[in-house]
Amino acid sequence: MEALAIGSAPPRPGFAAPTRYSHLRRPRTLAVAASARRLLAAAHMDAAAAAGGRPSPAPARCTRAETEPEVGEVATSSHAALEAEAAGATEQGDNGSPVADAAAAAGASIEGVDGIRIRRRPVTGPSVHYVGPFQFRLENEGNTPRNILEKIVWDKDAEVSQMKERRPLYMLKGALEAAPPARDFVGALKASYDRTGLPALIAEVKKASPSRGVLREDFDPVQIAQAYEKNGAACLSVLTDEKYFQGSFNNLEAIRNAGVQCPLLCKEFIVDAWQLYYARSKGADAVLLIAAVLPDLDIKYMLKICKILGMSALVEVHDEREMDRVLGIDGVQLIGINNRNLETFEVDISNTKKLLEGERGQMIAQKDIIVVGESGLFTPDHISFVQNAGVKAVLVGESLIKQEDPGKAISGLFGKDISNTGAA
Ligand SMILES: O=C(O)c1ccccc1NCC(=O)[C@H](O)[C@H](O)COP(=O)(O)O
Known about the structure:
This protein is an alpha/beta fold and 424 residues long. The protein has helices spanning 27-50, 64-67, 75-92, 98-105, 110-113, 148-166, 173-178, 185-196, 221-230, 249-257, 274-281, 296-309, 320-327, 350-356, 358-366, 380-389, 398-401, 409-414, and strands at 128-131, 134-137, 200-205, 208-209, 213-214, 235-239, 264-267, 286-290, 312-317, 334-338, 370-374, 393-396.
């Protein structure tokens, strides 16, 4: 199949230059993606109708046809396997296929079937409707989010649709090629753990959060990032969501461009594969994939794309069911256990211990997966507690960012200096 040139040299007929980003083609994508979208829309409407809901127009999401990694890339064969799996999944009523996705969107068997506790988008469409020049609001159970995570994800879905319209995937190719190379996030965590004997620190650059409001008024992301690095952070987590966390991709880019060496996690609510490419184009070395938001097949697919882009993925779970789902997925290197319930905001650090007990802990050790303890860590005792439970890294925001000197707060959190110069 011929690909249209996006770069400078015209490709030989039938061949596209096999670069890292050569799968981002404009070509037939327009035709194929459009027909894929039509199919998706049709499946969406059918499944919604079958589920007894009103069909809502399928939002323009990054379909597999649009992001299909093809030429000479890691995913060439595995992608085919994924597609086959998707087809099988449709028949089995599993998750991740367009039909199952649509069923989930329609609110059909959200709990129990695919393990996702949230609805990916409003069942009955947005609550604001337009008829002619008039706008009216119609709220019902189907278009009212049930918790903050659902609200964030619905808003993100709409936001990403708009971003994609402004910068379709093929337009990101130049930015991807110009982006600084991805660095080894997992390697940095391992090196820090080996050096200090303590959980490696992923320090979070976060101005605000839905549960805590504004955490720091005088927020200079670059200064904070540099202070974290100087005081022993192995990696940084940078919030990019604007609406709920007052973060931005500008912050991520600025930290990267300022020469900070710590690999950067793009802390975002990923609902669409397009966001992976965008994060990479802004300098991310890793992304967050939340199991409560993404069906297994989406996680598998996104892991493949991360691999192609050279990024790591931190796959986040909150309960046993999500942990079991993620342990069933090949290629997961990093699992984050969030001690914060993102639906209720309740924080309980014993969650980390609970999820690492027994067979789960054994399987994690066998698979050589690094576990990251996330949220609610404030004292050296907390760090010891999660380390004894089995984590090799921790993700910490509030307890550092709220201190007058967030960098210095690191030694307070660990009970000792963990910087390169200080750690034994
Ligand atoms: O923190 C929130 O209010 C929140 C709400 C909805 C989704 C995600 C949310 N937080 C993300 C995180 O879990 C934390 O930023 C991260 O784990 C660090 O936690 P902490 O050290 O407690 O700031």
